[in-house]
Write a structure and sequence with these properties.
Elements: E1 4-9, H1 14-25, E2 29-36, E3 47-51, E4 68-71, H2 77-80, H3 83-103, E5 108-112, H4 124-139, E6 143-148, E7 152-153, H5 161-173, E8 187-188, H6 189-202, E9 206-211, H7 212-227
């Protein structure tokens, strides 16, 4: 039995919530630390919650500890209020977190990026995500796992009309999104969360980037292995 420790930044978000609950149920993790702006109101023997100001993240170095760091930080430009604030949340905070975690000897840095992330993109959102990926790569963690999901499906705590509209159209288009277009299919947040945790546990060395269709494929394989009795049935 492994004795792993994990840290989640962004545990109040759609994917972060699923990662947290999955980790708390996983016997291979003995401790789970979360960094959050507000308390989740959860109580669990494994859980350590730290209420922090992400603008002062560098001052929380001693608590940014864990074998596996799950970075689920992110917002929208509309929520952030400006491109400057968006970049601070989606680029500066994750990069600062990664630098501190590396200094504290984390094994794996697991990052949620986005489909279309490209540092040379003319689209501000995609360019910011691509620049973050590039900066994280340069840190040279023992293992860096970057996940690029398509539109995330699931029940959010806040209503995002644009994403709901996109979900409606993508659901209708799913049958024709085949082959190379499969990565554009919407993906359940829970599916992404499970894939992130299970891939972190493999302790891969080097850099790995997983597109949305690859994430779904990996999750489907996990389900088949559960049905075959190869791995325990702890999938949500």
């Amino acid at each position: 039995m492994k004795n792993l420790t994990a840290l989640i930044a962004g545990a109040t978000g759609l994917v972060g919530r699923h990662i947290l609950h999955y980790l708390l149920q996983d016997p291979e993790y003995s401790s789970v630390t979360i960094l959050t702006r507000r308390s989740l109101g959860l109580s669990h023997p494994k859980l350590q919650e730290h209420i922090i100001d992400f603008k002062k993240l560098e001052g929380f170095g001693p608590v940014i500890q864990g074998n596996h760091i799950f970075c689920c930080l992110g917002t929208t430009i509309k929520q952030a209020g400006s491109q400057t604030d968006f970049r601070r949340i989606d680029y500066t905070y994750p990069l600062t977190l990664a630098r501190i975690a590396l200094k504290n000897h984390a094994h794996q840095f697991v990052l949620i990026s986005a489909l279309g992330a490209n540092k040379n993109s003319k689209i501000f959102y995609n360019r910011t995500k691509g620049e973050l990926e590039e900066s994280i790569r340069e840190l040279d963690f023992p293992g860096t796992l970057i996940f690029r999901p398509s539109l995330l499906l699931g029940k959010r705590t806040e209503f995002r009309p644009g994403e709901k509209l996109g979900e409606f159209f993508l659901t209708g288009l799913t049958p024709v999104l085949q082959g190379k277009l499969k990565k554009y299919r919407g993906i359940q947040a829970q599916t992404l969360a499970v894939a992130m945790v299970e891939m972190a546990k493999v302790e891969l060395k080097g850099l790995y980037i997983f597109e949305s269709d690859q994430i779904q494929f990996f999750y489907n394989r996990l389900q088949k292995n559960v049905l075959a009795g190869i791995i325990p049935d702890n999938l949500p």
